[in-house]
Amino acid sequence: MFCIMAAFAVLVARLFYLQIIERQEYNRLSENNCIRLQSIDPPRGMIFDRYGKLLVENRPSFDLSIILKDAKPLDQTLYRVSDFLESTPQELITKVKRKNGFQSYKPIPLHQDIGRDVLAMIEVNKFDLPGIEVNVRPLRHYIQRGVSAHIIGYLSEIDPKELKSGAYTDARPGDFIGKFGAEKTFDGFLRGKRGGRQVEVNATGQVVRVLNTVEAQPGNNIYLTIDQQLQEKAETLLGGLAGAVVAIKPSTGEVLVLTSSPSFDQNAFASGLSLKQWRTLQFNPFRPMENKAIQGEYAPASTYKIITAIAGLEEGVIDTSTTFYCPGFYEYGDRVFRCWKKGGHGTVDVFRALAESCDVFFYQVGQKLGVDRLAWHAKASGLGAATGIDLDHEAHGLIPTAAWKKQRTGVPWQRGETLSVAIGQGYNLVTPLQMAVLAAAVANDGVAYKPLILKSIESADGKIVFRNEKQVLRKLPTSRRTMDIVKRGLWEVVHSERGTARIARVHGINISGKTGTAQVIGRRKGDTSRKIERAPHQEAHAWFVAYAPSEDSKIAVSVVVENGEHGSSAAAPIAREIIKTYLQREKPRILTEDANATDRLISLNSKPNPDKLEKTNNKSQIPNNKQYPMTKNTNSKQRFGIDLSNH
Amino acid sequence: MFDRRLVQHFDWGLLGLTLLLGAIGIITLYSAVTAGAPTPEKLLYIKQIIWFGLGLTAMIAAFLFDYKKLDQLSFFIYAFCVLLLICVLFFGKLVSGSRRWLMLGPFTIQPSELIKIGLIIVLARYYAKVANTGGVGLRELIIPVILTALPFILIVKQPDLGTALLLVLIVGSVTLFVKIGKRTLACIIAVGMVTIPLVWFFLKGYQKGRILTFLDPDRDPLGAGYHIIQSKIAIGSGMITGKGFLKGTQNALSFLPEQHTDFIFSVLAEEWGFVGSVGLIILFLMLIIWGLNIAYGCRDNFGIALSFGVIVMIFWQVFINIGMVMGLMPVVGIPLPLISYGGSSLMTIMIGLGLLMNVRMRRFLPE
Prior knowledge:
Chain A is an alpha+beta fold. Helices cover 40% and strands 20% of the residues of chain A.
């Protein structure tokens, strides 16, 4: 009883304090309704490329809004402010009317990103514009318009579904969140945490006192694995044609290039896309919004012969001594399967078959293997399945089996279809990324790493908080011997006299690769012409997958040019330029790594005598430094060999 | 069956107080929801009138039968409420991060409210038995601790720390009231003094932060702290006589959060001032004293424990809610009995009051 009386006495005492003693102060605060909450948006983290080149930053956007409660007279204020903007007073009035009757102390946005000149004029005339408010908001700025757009991604306004999903905990309507690419995948790291302040405002809405502040926590910075300079190069090389370029570092799986062409301007998304802009992007026949490197599914064409060769060697249906005669066609059942070379290749073994891309050779390998054994090797090599890259909408591709066809179409597998599949036509579908991972795996003697786009995450004050590690995706079930045979064949593609990718040769660098020409429509029966009149969109897609240097590879590349016709002419030169640029760019780095490695080796072997150590160090450094300018392109293979064996 | 004496002893005073408080609640709610922007919430007060009608029915149902029959049913009632709490965790409606409500046709019910009555009844039965055999020692406390811990954990999971702690307060008060042994009490206090710092030591940084914010809303100036400032402005600006019915400005501009549920007292204090607020507090005080009288006038242990349980439930809710909106207490979702909007809360309180009436009108009946 006593306790209860005491408790109620406390309540009454508190009431007395608030309503009698402090009544003047609270009444004053209440009259203006002047305690308000202002949100402080956290600066979103920046994005860099692998070498620390800034790709995405935030620039200030000055947004104009109006607070109805303070803007009196309203019409006059809107007329005045319209002088400084591109909008007519009527437009502003309708904008405001739409929100009228709605909490009058909340700012209604009038115009976003007004620019510094308009801002200056508004500030000068501030006292004639009651209730007009300018807020600075960080706006996402993609420094190189369009370059790497698909991998970096873009921001867009959060939609009600995402708000409800609970995945974006302190998001509010109107917030911009990552909607595509790395901006989406790493949104949680980039976003930061919202802050705010309690402020007291006067009758005209100006802040007179800050009562309490919670600082916003800026988002983390992201370092991607991509090489922006190389990305730019790839985009220039594609020249706006529909296509994709992927380059991977075979020893780690880091993605150096992931380009899809044509590209789009991410800055347009950051400041809100108009309906017209959106439609233009949506209905562009070259599909700029699609990331063709991971979403594009293409028939692998002759690049698939890598798989057919591996399967044939592993299953023992062919060996290095196996030869087939190619007269330019192959009769199977009641059908004639043509080789791309009308006159035929003559007698070919597996090396020549790869180098010259002989279809007849691989028809027969495929026929001996059967579709299911072929499919098993393709799947074991990672085709027909997503690689698990940290990007949305990755396509799976398709590797057909007899059971799959029966289930899908109800028609049993025709044995002739195996022949088409063996040369990468038919139902086969792969993505450029899958082929790049395959090329990297072959370069790596069978070890495939998961393709990574994130190198590291850094806090806003520059401390590394996360460093991505390489992860083995799979080991190809392929013997060393098979690998060596296939690798030699792929080297011959570029370097033998009649190799299909002679065009990809670069002085001083050993490149291995495979061309491919994926027919978009099958030729009609009896059509023997090499080139017939075809609409551009019916031209074949050009493929080239490659890795270089041929031993201890530093880069694996896959290129697709839609309707580019021939892999050798359209895709191989692009891959060549990417490889050349990257290796030249990396050379100084590799050389210094070399020198360091040699130093370490020497210091480990030598006795712990400081004098001697210094001497040997000097000795080993000087020739290396001198050698560099002279041995620009020669002897590079050996040098790379030394580099890795020392590690 | 129906004894004439029952009608004679019917507690008209308690009924009158209930109706009076209910009416004040609906009037304040009307002001809280009709001011400001037109929203679907405008019709909440009609919904509340319907709930009040249902509450009256439940109240009548709660005094028509002899409360001694609850003795046997107590465990089933408790189990049923716990079952509802389990259902909430699986099928509950997710509102701003927590699952507290079950959808039942047009109405939503909040099982964490109903469990209060369930717990009070089951504890009353247990303590009535224990009291017959002697005082309450540590061993006798095991069962109440289990009975409380079960719903406590389920409610913390929702998460609704405020309501969960309210359960502990109710059980603690009832336990103290049934004459706990002095040594037992000393034991509990000692254990508590040792455990709390230990638990604190093992908590992670963000958990500590959450508890500190719970205790001190100023640590969260953008959330709870802001609500309390607005609430204090509303109350303080009511001054001595208030701004008048429907004239509250803080409320009209939607500065007050949850002004129809947890912060309803701020609306009342702004419009009716010190006079009105103290008046409401006095009415609650009368209700509580009335209830205590019923408890003291009862002759069987079950009835005493039962009515005392209902009284402490009302007391703690009033004290915590009003203390909270004035910035004296942590910001927890505890509604003001009979005044705040919310069907389950209203039902729970009115069933409780019905049980009080039940005890009162049967005090002279032979065993």
